Amino acid sequence: MLKRIFISCLVLSFLLGQNVFAQFNAKTLAALKEQALSEDIAYFNAEKISTEFGGRMPGSAAAEKTIQWIVSELTQYPQITIQKQKTRARNWTNQSASVEIVSPYSHNLNAVSLAGSIATPATGVEAEVVKVSSLEHLRGIDAKALAGKIVYIDRKLSKQKPLSDYYQASLLRQQSINLAARKGALAVIQRSVSIARSKLPHTGLIKYQKDIKKIPAAAISTSDADLLDRIINRNQTTRVKLILNNTENKWLDTSNIIATLKSPKQTAENILLITHIDSWSLGTGALDNAAGVGTMLASMKHLVQLNKDLERNIVMVFIGSSRLAPIGIQDFISANSELIKNTQVATELDMGAGAVIRMDSRLNENFLSSADRLHTLLSDLNITRGHNHSIGGSQTHFLIQQNVPVISWIQQPDEFFKYLHSANDTFDKVELTDMQQLTATLSAFLYVSAASQMAFK
Q: What's the Rg (C-alpha) of the chain?
């Protein structure tokens, strides 16, 4: 521990000697990292959310209890101003899902409805399967060949680059449902977007276009997708029966939480940190996103103790409605234009509980030196410097559209992309040492950016 503090202080002393950060205290930053690396607050925050509240569909009783608990945690700090912003959520619910190969062989496949999907008729949908591997492949198939068929999207997630590939897989999920419907397909089945070999399916959101007839959509487990592939590759007509029981009939009320730790300097400038509270109901939402919520709360505790050092306000936003539509972040942006205009930089936690391995950014090139200096201060946490082309996360993506500079923390992706959006998203996947490093990274970033005049725009 003493060796780590000594090395950190040497790096910081050099930077201070270069007049990079006139305000913040090098010893304070080193001690902050060491404190975070030795604590278990974030870990047990995530454990509490996963164990006591479980899966948290937006607007559900579990999600509302989580919101109440977050507010109670923040209320213990008189330095923090707390605002609950009203937002809303769809009450879409997946009651059951069944996918069955009926010929040339008989198999029951583990399946889940893709979020937002309509239900099938009670008797289900049965038809021949047409396998496609990409959006280009689907576009190239004549509508006559798809009319009255079930489209099977067979695209494997890259194990080498799951993060960047997940974005492409998500686009395929979003766009294929509408293209298949336009060509007369009866339903869509998708290979689960996961790097795991598993019998558990993974869900994900679909969005119907208003001018196209809605068709049902489901995901099957990666193991069952391999089975379906082997059968189709035998060049025999393959028929599948799909039964989905989903409901949606109203809007639900929920909230975003906006927690502000004000600088004693009476400044309008903000450092913005954002995450989402809600999760899918299949698992307990430990990786997505109890880990992010728990880490933010742990970091806020650290920064409250350093409030007197802050040159800028720290604003933490907990989004209550994100899983079925980006309503929470859109409501936050529309109601907080001044706050957003005065935000120097934003960041997000929404990539599970893995340790941070890389720091990406999305800044004007004139301010890249600030990101590089920031990385230097975090390099002792084994974080590499990435690129300046970040597309942001599920929430900061929308802030980039508002010209807000963004720092993106790329976490070790393997566990996240094995279990994301599945019943396997449970607390046993969370490791204490990873959560400690994640907390140290976030707390150090907040201190450096808020306790100095480092310019990000």
A: 23
Instruction: Read off the CATH number of the domain in which 42 is found.
Output: 3.40.630.10
> Model confidence over 111-144: pLDDT tens digits?
999 999 999 999 999 999 999 999 999 999 999 9
List the domain range (segments joined by +) for residue 31.
Answer: 2-90+251-450
For residues 360 and 290, state if they share a domain. yes
CB atoms inside a 10 Å sphere around CB 364 = 11
Half-sphere exposure of 171 (CA within 13 A, CB side): 8
Collapse the DSSP code of 403 into the 3-class scheme (helix H, G, I; strand E, B; otherwise coil) and give the result.
coil
- 3-state percent helix, strand, coil for the chain, nearest multiple of 5: 40, 25, 35
Residue 457 within a domain: no
Q: pLDDT class for 24, splitting at 50, 70, 90?
A: confident
Confidence at 25, pLDDT banded by 50, 70, 90: confident
**Claim to verify: residue 265 and residue 120 sit in the same structural domain:** no
Q: Is the pLDDT of residue 7 over 60?
A: no
DSSP string, 26-81: HHHHHHHHHHHHH--HHHHHHHHIIIII----TTSHHHHHHHHHHHHHHHT-TTEE
As a whole number, mean pLDDT of residues 186-199 equals 97
The H-assigned helical ranges of 192-351 are 222-232, 291-304, 327-335, 337-341
User: Which SS3 state, helix, strand or coil, does residue 194 take?
Assistant: coil
The pLDDT tens digits of the residues spanning 145-183 come to 999 999 999 999 999 999 889 989 989 999 999 999 999
Largest Cα separation within the chain, whole Å, is: 74
Task: Look at residue 89 and give its three-state secondary structure.
Answer: strand
Q: What is the CATH number of the domain that holds 173?
A: 3.50.30.30
pTM exceeds 0.85, yes or no: yes
CA distances (Å), 200 to each of 33, 67, 74, 188, in order?
38, 29, 36, 18
Sequence-ordered list of residues with C-beta below 8 angstroms from that of 202, at least 6 positions apart, any chain: 112, 192, 193, 194, 219, 221, 420, 421, 422
Secondary structure (3-state) at 315: strand
Tokens of residue 41, six digits:
């607050």
411 and 353 in one domain?
Answer: yes
d(CA 355, CA 103): 46
Q: Count how many domains the chain has.
A: 2
| Contact call for residues 408 and 362 (beta carbons, < 8 A) | yes
Angle at 223 (CA atoms; ends 237, 174), nearest 5 degrees: 80
